[in-house]
Amino acid sequence: MRKEILTDKAPAPIGPYSQAILAQGKLLYISGQIPMNVKGEIVGDNITLQTKQVIKNIAAIIEAAGGDMINIVKTTCLLSDMENFGEFNLVYSEYFSESNPARATYGVNRLPKDVLVEIEAVAIL
């Protein structure tokens, strides 16, 4: 069983993908989120503001699926500049201090729309 999750409280996909897919009624795969608001505008010009917007998007999607941030078990984080890792980690830890999901963080050459951060997540509902 597979169900697409789509909420107007997070930005619409900008390509041929879903905001999230709920598989087997309990595994939620959230597509990589960038710091875009529901109007399609990039939010913030620094890693702190952009990370907060990305996590806000993830929270809206997981809530639309009937879950909460505590349900996230794995994240993959992409940073356009690893010099931002310390600041990114401070913001990230504000949202995940209770659950501490497994995580991989990579420095990449470039992200969509030249943003500073993108995060995808997996949750068990």
Summarize the model shown.
This protein is an alpha+beta fold and 125 residues long. It has helices at residues 47-64, 85-96, and strands at residues 2-5, 20-23, 27-33, 72-79, 102-107, 117-124.
Structure description:
The protein has two helices and six strands. The chain has one domain: RutC-like (60s Ribosomal Protein L30, Chain: A). It is globular and about 40 Å long. A six-stranded mixed β-sheet has the order 1-2-3-6-4-5, with helices on one face. The mean pLDDT is 97. By secondary structure, it is α+β, with helices and mostly antiparallel strands.
Helix content: 10-25%
Named CATH topology: 60s Ribosomal Protein L30, Chain: A
| Rg | 13 Å
Instruction: Using the alpha-carbon principal axes, give the shape.
Output: globular
Strand content: 25-35%
**In whole angstroms, how far apart are the ends?**
14 Å
Structure class: alpha+beta
State the low-pLDDT regions, or none.
none
Considering the protein shown, what is the CATH homologous superfamily?
Answer: RutC-like
Instruction: Note the main sheet.
Output: 6 strands, mixed
> N-to-C SSE series?
EEEHEHEE
In the CATH scheme, the class would be Alpha Beta
* Strand order in the sheet with the most strands: 1-2-3-6-4-5
The CATH architecture would be 2-Layer Sandwich
Number of strands: 6
Mean pLDDT: 97
Task: Count structural domains.
Answer: 1
- What is the number of helices? 2
